[in-house]
Amino acid sequence: EITERKQAEDKLQVAQLQWSQFLEVSPDPMWIKDASGRYVAASKSYFHADPSAEGNIIGKTDAECFPPEKAAVYVANDRVAIERGATEGEFTAVGVDGKLRNFLTKKVVLRAPDGSVAGTLGVSRDITDRKKIEEALQDSVDRWRVAIDAISDIVCLISSEHTFLAINEAGVRALNLPRSEIIGRKCYELVHGTTCPIPVCPCSKAIETGLEGSSDYEQGGRFYSLQAWPLKDKSGHVTSLVHIVKDITERKRAEADKEAMQAQLRQSQKMGAIGQLAGGIAHDFNNLLTGILGNIALMRSSLAPADPLLENLNAAETSARQAADLTKGLLTFSRSAMILPVPMNIAAALDVTLTLLKQSLPATMEIVRDHEQTAWNVLLDQSQLTQILLNLAVNARDAMKGKGTLTIRARDETVDAAYVHEHPYARTGEFVHLSVSDTGSGMSAEVMQHLFEPFYTTKPVGSGTGLGLSIVYGAVKQAGGWITAVSMEGVGVTFDIYLPRCLEESIQSVTPSPLPVNAGSGTILVVEDEPIVCAVAQALLSRSGYTVLTAPDGTSALNILREHPVSIGLILLDMTMPGMTTSEVVQAIRALDPKVPILLTSGYTSNDIVRQMLEEGAVQEFLPKPYELHELLEKVQELLHKS
């Protein structure tokens, strides 16, 4: 019996020693009170937190150790712990450093072996730093939420089960529901009104594949872009995803507006091309009409006033005047002509286009045709071919500065797999290969990289739109073909165009009518390369008593002027002639005779060069074709009188 008691006492001493050591090393303040509320033990850290309590609390109650208000709180907490078995709460107190600190206090009831209350055990932990971290984290979360809520796009966090975990204000407004009624709900239920996920939804794809998903859709007249980014755990499983919905209506409208503007620019460029061709056509027709009206005037002057043939001449003159009005209409050609592709023989179509093109280019540019070896048809609109060739010709004209050789070739070719391997954008089959080469300055590798890009130009500001080659590219693509370019600086450029063969027979003839040929010679110098116009002018002036000399080009005119330096009193000069440009001829004339009057004439009046030369005084008058006898004579007499 004594031995058992001794063993029990030893165990108690060991337990007390262990408890004492625990109180010594515990980093958190700890204390024990007996059933009457008196302190019976406290950890060393307790006195570190409150040095004044050391030696003053053991054996005392809270009422004896603390101010009444604090003591009442401690006693009440002890009572709750005894009633409930434990209690927990936060409070603030001044720490050793004199600063207010946060503590988390827990209390449990201690019971005797018989179950009666033996006292309470309390432990308090300084959570000041933890509170600061929590507050900083909460502040960061709040700032992040404010930032996300400020975004106009819908941003939400969705679980792998398609449940809303979080959503910003834009999403709340879009769904028109309180946030509390959104969180926890299935996204497909609220957004699409379905009972299961939609397979095409980027969220479904992101959850299934673990990859980013995106798509665009239209709803209620507005356009939206959807994107979903999966969030994965360490093992790579998708746990949730960030889903963003952006309203791209304005962007779509801007793109549509941009496309409309580009279409307008393309239309404007096409009208510019047609305008140049119209000038060439007007020039040719007006030359013919000048010959017709001039010969009518000559015939009328040789008939008696009562001659019955005068009625026929008047009718012919009326028709010729109507034709002259038609040529004016060419300059205001419709701006909305439809493109109607038809089967056409490329060789014949090239003849028509090049005949018209010739009058729109400087006479100093030589055009070489090499298309006799092609017999295949293509499905094309004549205006498309005109647009392609005109833009390439204008590009060549600028590269050659108005002088050089433009070579246009056409061949029937079969494109094989080897060619397609080197040119991935091509395809095998039968094609008409059209090539356009110039002897200009060529292009650098950098320029070649941007060759067909809209608005890209190497010309000075105001000298080009940068749309010419992009229009060519579009026209070729529209015709089902492709275009490439090869160039080196200093050696010109070659454009290769492949147009698919059309097996249908051509349904229209495109052979141009031949121009009449005539000749003439004669102290008024007539410089005109069109024989019929030259002959009419010579006859009209000769019958009016003038001596007439004629020259078919600028070089011949200068030779005649050197041979007759005094006798020539006026020069009637046509604008479009082979060899020298109009400006070069005028400058050379002025070098030989600064005072001789120059009467400029042309079938295409809308020319800036004419206005410039008139303003500068390089030429004295301008007479548009077709002109009549009295108009020509009035201008001639006026200029001779002034000189």
From TrEMBL:
It holds the Pfam family HATPase_c. Residues 523-640 form the Response regulatory domain. The keyword Chaperone does not apply. GO terms for molecular function: phosphorelay sensor kinase activity. Its EC number is 2.7.13.3. The lineage of its organism: Bacteria, Pseudomonadati, Caldisericota/Cryosericota group, Candidatus Cryosericota, Candidatus Cryosericia. This is histidine kinase. It catalyses: ATP + protein L-histidine = ADP + protein N-phospho-L-histidine. The keyword Nucleotidyltransferase does not apply. The modification 4-aspartylphosphate is found at D574. Residues 140-192 form the PAS domain. Residues 1-14, 87-139, 205-260 form the PAC domain. It comes from the Bacteria. Keywords: Kinase, Phosphoprotein, Transferase. Residues 280-503 form the Histidine kinase domain.
